[in-house]
Write a structure and sequence with these properties.
Elements (H helix, E strand, L loop, with lengths): L8 H13 L2 H5 L11 E6 L7 E10 L11 E9 L7 E10 L5 E8 L3 E4 L7 E3 L7 E8 L6 E8 L6 E8 L4 E9 L8 E10 L15 E12 L2 E6 L1 E6 L7 E5 L5 E5 L13 E3 L4 E2 L4 E7 L10 E6 L11 E4 L4 E7 L5 E9 L4 E11 L1
Parallel strand pairs: 19-25
Antiparallel strand pairs: 1-12, 1-15, 2-9, 2-13, 3-4, 3-12, 4-5, 5-8, 6-11, 7-8, 9-10, 10-11, 13-14, 13-17, 16-17, 18-20, 20-23, 21-22, 21-24, 24-25
């Protein structure tokens, strides 16, 4: 059967080279196209009591951007809601990896439905924005040089002598400083109370529709039990009881609840092993190309049908695999990966198949490709 693929001795060497290059990062590109949504990991508190002073705690254990801003857009955040706002005001407080020109890193306090914003600490480039993720609301931001390895406290509390306004702070224990992020107005003129909802880390490189899992750098953090008070009375610390993951980049997600109720949140898209595929697939992002250009196919198959002799063949439309020679072919080893062809085939329509174990049993395809 191999005569129909026009196998050459050099192909075996090329296949070995490709196996060596198929690292977890290469596999990552096939796990979680941006159409699946933003990848993230979520920690759920064991209970959601009411607070007038609500305190969250975050320590980044692995900074994906130490010392530089290299595009790893990670957001560690704590979400809460108002118990009294008729419009269901809720928001989040947290910090992100990108740096500004002075080395500050964005710390955010945002609320959907907020009706006012006042600036935070003038030392840290405070900003007010008149929306929350593009929806009605408001947000206060500063640029503070937070670093990995420090357990920061992020607090939201009723603003003294400002009914209906809430103040947010980040406390840095290394400097014994409580830095104001800003003020937001929400929840009604009598303040009301707020309650925690869920805490999360998300990777908002996914704002780019071309993002793939392998673009994201490794990161890690710990969320510690929630504390605070309600009208001056201490509320018992609330541990985290469970975690959940999004459906995107699932192979990279690692989470656990530690003794004492802290949530460990880690993503390692640059290492580790991808979750096995559950179905056969063969795809390309460029089904129409010019003659002589490159075309890449992503393939996947369950472990039960993975083979070092699986292959992808290109056929002229109308040719039958196993009867006519392929126009071009490459080995497709393992349970997932990608192969790239240079399409010097001449103008026309071609059918591309993903075959099993050096034979002609079709795993996926045909995918129609037009060469102009």
């Amino acid at each position: 059967m191999s005569k129909f693929k026009a196998r050459a001795a050099t192909v075996a060497v090329a296949a070995l080279a490709m196996l060596g290059s198929m690292t977890a990062v290469a596999g990552a590109a096939t796990d979680g196209p941006s159409s699946l949504g933003t990848p993230g990991i979520y920690a759920w508190p064991a209970s959601t009591p009411n607070y007038t002073v609500l305190q969250f705690y975050t320590k980044v254990t692995q900074d994906p951007t130490p010392g530089v801003d290299n595009g790893a857009n990670v957001f560690w955040s704590h979400q809460f809601s108002s118990t009294t706002d008729a419009n269901g005001a809720g928001g989040y407080i947290g910090f992100q990896t990108p740096k500004d020109a002075k080395g500050g890193r964005q710390v955010l306090f945002s609320v959907w439905g907020a009706t006012g914003c006042q600036l935070g600490d003038s030392r840290y480039e405070p900003v007010c924005v008149n929306n929350t993720d593009g929806d009605p609301g408001a947000g206060a931001r500063i640029f503070y040089p937070w670093v990995a390895g420090v357990k920061y406290r992020l607090s939201i509390q009723q603003a003294s002598a400002k009914p209906g306004w809430w103040a947010a702070y980040i406390y840095d224990p290394t400097k014994n400083q409580n830095i104001r992020i800003g003020y937001l107005q929400f929840g009604g003129t009598s303040w009301g109370q707020i309650t925690p909802e869920v805490d999360w880390v998300e990777y908002y490189n996914w704002n780019d529709p071309n993002a793939v899992c392998g673009d994201q750098l490794n990161s890690g953090a710990v969320f510690y039990p929630i504390t605070g008070t309600n009208n001056g009375k201490k509320v018992a610390a609330v541990p985290y009881s469970s975690t959940s993951h999004s459906d995107t980049c699932t192979y990279a997600d690692q989470s656990s609840i530690a003794t004492g109720g802290s949530a460990n949140i880690v993503a390692t898209p640059q290492s580790g092993t991808a979750a096995p595929p559950t179905a056969n697939s063969l795809t390309t992002a460029t089904p129409s190309i010019t003659n002589g250009s490159s075309i890449t196919f992503n393939y996947a198959t369950p472990v039960s049908s993975a083979s070092s002799s699986n292959w992808i063949g290109v056929y002229k439309q109308g040719d039958t695999p196993g009867t006519q020679y392929s126009t071009d072919w490459q080995t497709a080893s393992g349970d997932r990966g990608s192969v790239t062809f240079t399409a010097n085939y001449g103008p026309g329509t071609y059918q591309v198949y993903y075959f099993y174990n050096d034979g002609y049993s079709v795993l996926a395809g045909p995918v129609t490709v037009t060469v102009k």
